[in-house]
Amino acid sequence: MKKYIFSALAIAAMMVSCNNAAPKMDEQPAAGEASASGMKIAYVEVDSLMTQYTFAKDYSVTLEKKSNNARNTLTQKGNQLQAAVNNFQQKLNNNGFQSREQAASVQNAIQRQQNDLQTLQARLESELANETAKFNEALRDSLQNFLKAYNKDKKYDIILSKAGDNILFADKKYDITQDVINGLNKRYKPSAKKDEKKADDKKTDEKKEEKK
């Protein structure tokens, strides 16, 4: 299986002031700083965002589970194929087949098994790639929607992503990473909790109906 790496594309957003309402936050935001050109600039550390944003952490666990399940499935199928090949070769060496036709039939079955395994591998890789792309898109949308609301109040001209050496140096006074992470986590509602709330609401409604 190919190892899929979460894209930082979703974080590389340059956001201009927007008209959406800013979210209420308890944390004190990073102080806005104006550059020498008069522009108000900030940046977000991608690595910190990926490890501290609950949505990113939850999705990482989901993708890892799917990747491990796919790998285990392919390993199992691969072992079965190898066992069939070994058994065929052993019978062939020991004249264990009653005829050439029988040997050819077994060989064809092994070939079909190999083709099926290759098809399965391609399908699982495609599914994992699609799931990773879905994550990247959701992460990008989540961040951009938050920054639009966040920047209504902060009024930054540019918000940059900082990943690796793409920004060689940046003064910490421009770092709004923790502020953004805090805000994102406040807005994030895990699907599991949503499902639990729906279940609780349904039970409450049922109890009300019984009382009637």
Overall outline: rod-shaped
Oligomer: single chain
Helix content: 55-70%
Strand content: under 5%
Number of distinct helices: 5
For the largest sheet, list the strands in their spatial order: 1-2
Q: Report the radius of gyration as a whole number of Å.
A: 27 Å
SSE order in H/E notation?
EHHHEHH
- The residue ranges in which pLDDT falls below 50 over 5 or more consecutive positions are 1-31
Q: What would the average pLDDT be, to the nearest integer?
A: 82
Largest sheet: 2 strands, parallel
Number of DSSP-assigned strands: 2
Structural class: mainly alpha
Report the end-to-end length measured between terminal Cα atoms.
57 Å
Supply database-style keywords.
two-stranded parallel ribbon, mainly alpha, 212 residues, 2 strands
Task: Please provide a written account of the structure.
The longest helix is centred in the middle third of the chain and has 55 residues, at 100-154. Strands 1-2 form a two-stranded parallel ribbon. It is mostly helical. It has helices at 46-52, 54-93, 100-154, 177-187, 191-211, and strands at 41-45, 158-162. The chain is rod-shaped. 63% of the residues lie in helices and 5% in strands.
